[in-house]
């Protein structure tokens, strides 16, 4: 976690909740921040995933259908009840590419927020990249290395370049796994991604990749890598070839992939491989984190800022400052 001032609580941990409304699935992450000496450590307690596939509507018809909007409202209502039962101190709910691009995205976000009691905000691409950077970089950066952080979702891909411990560039591209499956991988979009990656990384090589998102997490596990190990370009390329040998049904029945993962994992692998090739990355770190983890970081920062305000009013703090590791 990021360095913060003294925090104002006698509780053993702080509970936070993050809801990520993505193009492929809607996720609820429940996490605690535990305090140990002068450190704050995040522990994921539960991740609940609902495969709504909002992108199926948007990338074909251009808007969210009434059926999908109703299912989203029910999902968020259920998540809101779970958040209350969990006793979260604070919560966030953000939507990404599907609602961002849908013609009725703002209307759907407003309606389902009111119906569920869980306010839903649509992130622009740059803000999404900012938050993902918080999650992917936390505890993984070495000042002696340069990184390309990439998160591949159903509707978009967010990329950040980090050098000397600081982000020097970031951008969101409308290239995602569902778009590829729907045949929405315009050559112009691929060329923009390729040119940006090559030009932006040229002065920062050699680079190490950091991958986030559900697909790279699953690929990392399929490679049977231990936590903290690096996934090489060659290993990822072999995984791609291995997965392509199986049909959609075989990936579910023989490899144990979930139905909404079994089709998108191949195009996700392709996108990661392209970015690694264009940035000349030979290795990738996989923190097993994503947008929701970055949202937990935001909630903790908000808490720390509030604690600072209270301390300025001379309300006594009970514990020392928090710093990540």
- Write out the CATH superfamily name of the largest domain: Exopolyphosphatase. Domain 2
Give the C-level CATH assignment of the largest domain: Alpha Beta
Structural class: alpha/beta
Give the uncertain stretches in residue-range form: 1-10, 312-325
What is the H-and-E element order? EEEHHEHHEHEEEHHEHEHHHHEH
* Tally of separate helices: 13
Helical amount: 40-55%
- Spatial gap, N to C terminus: 7 Å
Return the CATH topology of the largest domain.
Nucleotidyltransferase, domain 5
Task: Provide tags for this entry.
disordered N terminus, alpha/beta, 45% helix, 325 residues, disordered C terminus, single chain, Nucleotidyltransferase, domain 5
Structure report:
With 325 residues, the chain is an alpha/beta fold. It has 2 domains: 13-124 and 292-312, ATPase, nucleotide binding domain (Nucleotidyltransferase, domain 5, 2-Layer Sandwich); 139-285, Exopolyphosphatase. Domain 2 (Nucleotidyltransferase, domain 5, 2-Layer Sandwich), CATH 3.30.420.150. The chain is built from 13 helices and 11 strands. It has helices spanning 54-61, 66-86, 97-101, 105-116, 125-137, 177-181, 187-201, 214-222, 233-244, 248-253, 259-262, 265-279, 291-312; strands spanning 13-21, 26-36, 39-50, 90-95, 121-122, 146-152, 157-163, 166-173, 207-212, 230-232, 283-285. The strands form 2 sheets. The protein has a 6-stranded mixed sheet with strand order 8-7-6-9-11-10, sandwiched between helices. Strand 2 (26-36) and strand 3 (39-50) form a beta hairpin. Helix 2 crosses helix 4 (105-116), helix 5 packs across helix 13 (291-312) and helix 7 (187-201) crosses helix 12. The longest helix has 22 residues, at 291-312. The radius of gyration is 20 Å and the shape is globular. Residues 1-10 and 312-325 have low confidence and may be disordered.
């Amino acid at each position: 976690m990021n360095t913060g001032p003294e925090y104002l609580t006698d509780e053993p941990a702080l509970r936070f909740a993050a809801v990520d409304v993505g193009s492929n699935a809607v996720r609820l992450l429940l996490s605690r921040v535990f305090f140990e000496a002068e450190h704050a450590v995040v522990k994921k307690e539960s991740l609940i995933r609902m495969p709504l596939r909002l992108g199926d509507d948007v990338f074909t018809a251009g808007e969210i259908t009434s059926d999908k909007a109703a299912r989203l409202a029910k999902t968020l209502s259920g998540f809101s009840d779970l958040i209350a039962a969990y006793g979260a101190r604070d919560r966030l709910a953000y939507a990404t590419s599907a609602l961002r691009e849908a013609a009725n995205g703002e209307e759907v976000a407003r309606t389902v927020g009111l119906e569920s009691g869980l306010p839903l905000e649509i992130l622009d691409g740059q803000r999404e990249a900012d938050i993902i950077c918080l999650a992917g970089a936390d505890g993984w950066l070495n000042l002696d290395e340069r990184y390309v952080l990439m998160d591949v979702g159903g509707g978009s891909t967010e990329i950040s370049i980090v050098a000397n411990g600081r982000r020097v560039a970031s951008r969101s591209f409308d290239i995602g796994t569902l778009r590829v499956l729907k045949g929405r991988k315009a050559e112009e979009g691929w060329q923009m991604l390729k040119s940006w990656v090559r030009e932006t990384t040229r002065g920062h090589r050699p680079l190490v990749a950091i991958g986030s998102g559900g697909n790279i997490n699953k690929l990392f596990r399929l490679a049977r890598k231990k936590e903290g190990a690096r996934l090489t370009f060659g290993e990822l390329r072999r995984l791609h070839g291995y997965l392509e040998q199986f049909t959609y049904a075989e990936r579910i029945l023989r490899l144990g992939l979930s139905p909404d993962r079994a089709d998108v994992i191949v195009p996700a692998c392709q996108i990661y491989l392209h970015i690694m090739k264009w940035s000349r990355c030979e290795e990738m770190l996989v923190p097993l984190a994503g947008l929701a983890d970055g949202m937990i970081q935001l909630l903790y920062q908000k808490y720390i800022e509030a604690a600072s305000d209270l301390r300025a009013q001379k309300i006594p703090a009970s514990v020392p400052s928090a710093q990540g590791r």
